[in-house]
Backbone:
């Protein structure tokens, strides 16, 4: 694997996610580079579908253009999984990591199925619909990350799924207005209806409805808390450097959700971020979580809560 491909993965995560970039530095070199490779492919697929460059407002694309892009991503990903030589850095990176860690072909398919929901303009009627989307664009990424760290047991992969679900629920709540401006609403329509808000982008992005929308956001973040709690149990099954990075990412992203809750409806108007000094403290707390998970190995783990799961 060339230095250029590795550098591409590093650059992708640094531009795409400050939180994940900070946590990824805690992995050992080999593991860190494989995580960068996977992230580069995930980010590329997301941006390709949205006409974005590491997030932000989308370029106007027709439905036909989006479907063509999705078809291309499916084709290139299948080629990468088959071990064909890839001339694009993101797909070369993905091919390397997927073959090295024996990814189930259903995993990248699930991520692209999640993006297909965006392409098709899927409407999210209820919580299960929203969680199904979270599985496709984030839960299965957690599973692939765990596989990179050597996890194969389904119970461990399920905890990794839970962390991905928690991350995406947090993303949805952080980006409610930005997503609505891009024509998307991921909050459950039935929950919005219960507070008197229509589930169309113009209504959800209207500051006049911020207080009502925030009630739905609060419910989603409370659900994310349950998934963050469940995910912590999986740390004990990861190698220490892996547990260290995952625990730090869990702390940082969870803090974003809690900052949103603390700020109230005004949080919907601007994207919440974790300040650098706070992030340093959370990285240290993640280290404590990772150390504690070594002690927890001495006793059987508690059963998983009765939460929605695709695995």
Residues:
């Amino acid at each position: 694997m060339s230095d250029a491909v590795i550098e591409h993965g590093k650059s992708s995560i640094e531009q795409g996610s400050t939180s994940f970039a900070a946590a990824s530095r805690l992995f050992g070199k080999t593991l860190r580079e494989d995580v960068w490779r996977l992230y580069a492919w995930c980010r590329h697929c997301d941006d390709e579908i949205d006409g974005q460059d590491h997030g932000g407002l989308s370029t106007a694309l027709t439905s036909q253009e989006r479907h063509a892009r999705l078809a291309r991503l499916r084709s290139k990903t299948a080629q990468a999984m088959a071990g064909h030589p890839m001339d694009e850095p993101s797909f070369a990176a993905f091919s390397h990591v997927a073959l090295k860690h024996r990814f189930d072909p259903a995993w990248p398919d699930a991520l692209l199925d999640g993006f297909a929901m965006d392409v098709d303009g899927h409407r999210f009627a209820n919580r299960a619909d929203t969680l199904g989307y979270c599985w496709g664009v984030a839960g299965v990424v957690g599973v692939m990350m765990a596989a990179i760290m050597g996890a194969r047991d389904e119970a461990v992969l399920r905890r990794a799924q839970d962390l991905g679900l928690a991350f995406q629920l947090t993303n949805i709540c952080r980006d409610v207005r930005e997503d609505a401006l891009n024509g998307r609403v991921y909050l459950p329509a039935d929950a919005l209806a219960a507070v008197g808000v229509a589930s169309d982008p113009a209504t959800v992005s209207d500051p006049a409805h911020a207080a009502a929308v925030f009630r739905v956001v609060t419910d989603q973040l409370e659900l994310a808390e349950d998934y963050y709690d469940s995910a912590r149990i999986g740390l004990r099954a990861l190698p220490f450097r892996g547990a260290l990075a995952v625990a730090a990412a869990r702390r940082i992203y969870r803090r974003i959700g809690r900052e949103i809750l603390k700020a109230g409806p005004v949080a919907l108007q601007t994207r919440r971020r974790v300040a650098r000094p706070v992030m340093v403290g959370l990285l240290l707390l993640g280290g404590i979580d990772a150390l504690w998970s070594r002690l927890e190995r001495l006793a059987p783990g508690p059963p998983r809560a009765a939460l929605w799961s695709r695995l």
Remarks:
- The mean pLDDT is 91.
